[in-house]
Amino acid sequence: MKRIDCLKAIYPELEDCAVVTIMGAVAAELYSLGHRANFFYLEHAMGLASSIGLGIALAQPGRKVVVIDGDGSVLMNLGGLTTLARSRPKNLVHLIFDNETLLSVGGGAPGGYKWFTTATSTGTDLAGIARAAGFPKAQTVRELDDFEEAALDALDGGELSCIVAKVEAEMPKSFLMDVHMLENRFEFPRALQQPPRDRAALRRPTRIAKEQPTTIPALKSREE
Ligand SMILES: Cc1ncc(C[n+]2csc(CCOP(=O)(O)OP(=O)(O)O)c2C)c(N)n1
Ligand SMILES: [Mg+2]
Predict the structure, then answer these.
(1) What average pLDDT does range 49-72 have in this prediction?
(2) Staple 102 to which of 21, 51, 116, 182, CB 3.0 to 4.6 Å?
(3) How far is the CA of 215 from the centre of ligand 1 (A)?
(4) pLDDT of residue 212
(5) Which domains does the chain have, with CATH numbers?
(6) What is the pLDDT of residue 217?
(7) Closest Cα to atom 26 of ligand 1
(8) pLDDT(115) > 60
């Protein structure tokens, strides 16, 4: 399963959410699908995306918060999971893309990205840790259909949930992100001043059928 395909599958659902990503590869991939003011790319502060997400979730209980994390980042701050579980914000979905490496810093290393493997490559089970920390719902998915189903359920559901998506350690096509950190820092809270629309009203009638071409311009150009 590729992370970019997972991101494409949920992209239309992120419209009114507060989305906080970690830095590096996943931020660049989400950006490549089309930047939105409600996306915050947490540069540098590895391991703290869920902490930022928690603050937003508590401040805006009527908005869905989606934290897009990585295995290395979560492992760097395992206490983030216990703090999330303790507060149990019903409106937060924690997506962890587990590629079993520190991909974003490993591309140029001797031996390639496999040089920087994380503990999940030797069996550490992040969903298991989340459950043990007290998450009401935490699961691991390995197939795109399962990811899409789990993510949409979590977004529509009313409890804290964690989805660990096992993905290939594949670099984004480009790391280009034409949004300055400071610009992002100011546009994001401004975007969150707009009240979120009712998710039920936004809901598409069915899940994305993979054989149907997308109508979203940013995704369309990637598919061509
Ligand atoms: C405290 C800290 N240490 C190290 C780094 C350098 N760094 C940036 S991204 C990254 C790897 C992140 O790994 P992961 O969360 O698994 O995401 P991936 O790159 O695999 O998508 C590292 C080590 C950092 N930004 N902050
Ligand atoms: Mg990783």
Answers:
(1) 97
(2) 116
(3) 33
(4) 52
(5) 3-223 (3.40.50.970)
(6) 57
(7) 46
(8) yes
Ligand 1 atom at shortest distance from the alpha carbon of 23: 9
Closest CA to 93 of 132, 139, 129: 139
Amino acid at 73: S
Q: Where are the alpha helices (DSSP H) in 34-143?
A: 49-59, 71-76, 79-87, 103-106, 126-133
- Residue 96's beta-bridge partner residues? 69, 164
81 Cα: distance to centroid of ligand 2 (angstroms) = 17
Segment 181-218, tens digit of pLDDT: 999 999 999 999 999 887 776 655 445 445 455 555 55
Distance between CA atoms of residues 70 and 66, nearest Å: 13
- pTM for the full predicted model: 0.89
> Bridge-partner residues for 159, per DSSP?
none
In contact, 108 and 116? CB cutoff 8 Å:
no
Instruction: Enumerate residues lining ligand 1, CB below 6 A.
Output: 22-26, 44, 46, 70-73, 99, 101-105
pLDDT given at position 209? 45
